[in-house]
Amino acid sequence: MAAIEVRDVTFGYGEQPVVESVSLDVAEGEFLGLVGPNGSGKTTLLKLIIGLEAPDSGTVRLFDEPAVEFDDGERIGYVPQDVAATEDEMPITVEEAVRMGRYPHRWVGRFTDDDRRSVREAIERVGIEDLADRRVGRLSGGQRQRVFIARALASEADLLALDEPTVGVDAESREAFYRLLHELNDEGITIVLIEHDIGVVTTHASEIACLNRRLYFHGDPEEFVETDALADAYGGSQRVIHHDH
Ligand code: ADP
């Protein structure tokens, strides 16, 4: 089944479209790397995919439901780009933040043992046990990313949508972070990741989509590095070179 179906989607914040005529399918279990120059519409497309923005025309479906109506919020773990910047004031602890992932699963009342186990496992899984009682606002960017991933795991998300998760993270932590993503992906979680480092993303993703308002390429990472799509998209040419769907 397709986790994501984007059909001829156009969207603009004002008159000018920032995403135009984009169609792309992502099967369940894939690891999609979304690349393109600054301001090319990557974050916007990610928001359209998870239903945070509605297309001006075209359709987006998420697990076979219209993305904007998708009400199974716990299935989607979204880590926004500015998580490191915006959470400075976050007065809650790591454990409390991860617990928020359980809210959609909870009936009225107290946390169950299942909830507690799930929170503990998620925290262990991303390796932040020693930070559990620290305030999220006091953590480094990389540590915060892990908190948000843990929250998504606690919510048993089927799709992780990550917007440049390793910006400001050192090389070693970045490698560890990608290892974690691989493990989660191997377990069947679909991943959509915006990453500015082409070398990194083509190493890790199972497919690449290259965007500059329009979609320049969607397909195999090895094929992507051999085509002109990258240079064309980053050079500003509007010619569509490859499009698998
Ligand atoms: P990317 O993620 O590739 O850097 P974005 O999707 O963030 O690109 O932005 C695409 C374009 O839309 C840019 O020109 C940006 O300035 C504009 N944009 C993004 N968010 C908004 C917004 N909330 N309101 C108006 N314009 C926006």
Automatic annotation (TrEMBL):
PROSITE patterns, per the entry: ABC_TRANSPORTER_1, ABC_TRANSPORTER_2
Protein EC: 7.6.2.8
GO molecular function: ABC-type vitamin B12 transporter activity; ATP binding; ATP hydrolysis activity
Annotated keywords: ATP-binding, Nucleotide-binding, Transport
Limits of the ABC transporter domain: 4-237
InterPro entries, per database record: AAA+_ATPase, ABC_transporter-like_ATP-bd, ABC_transporter-like_CS, Metal_Ion_Import_ABC, P-loop_NTPase
Enzymatic class: translocase
Catalytic reaction annotation: an R-cob(III)alamin(out) + ATP + H2O = an R-cob(III)alamin(in) + ADP + phosphate + H(+)
Role description: Required for corrinoid utilization. Probably part of the ABC transporter complex BtuCDF involved in cobalamin (vitamin B12) import. Probably responsible for energy coupling to the transport system.
Subunit structure: The complex is composed of two ATP-binding proteins (BtuD), two transmembrane proteins (BtuC) and a solute-binding protein (BtuF).
Similarity field: Belongs to the ABC transporter superfamily.
Matches recorded under PANTHER family: IRON TRANSPORT SYSTEM ATP-BINDING PROTEIN HI_0361-RELATED, METAL TRANSPORT SYSTEM ATP-BINDING PROTEIN TM_0124-RELATED
Protein name in the entry: Cobalamin import ATP-binding protein BtuD
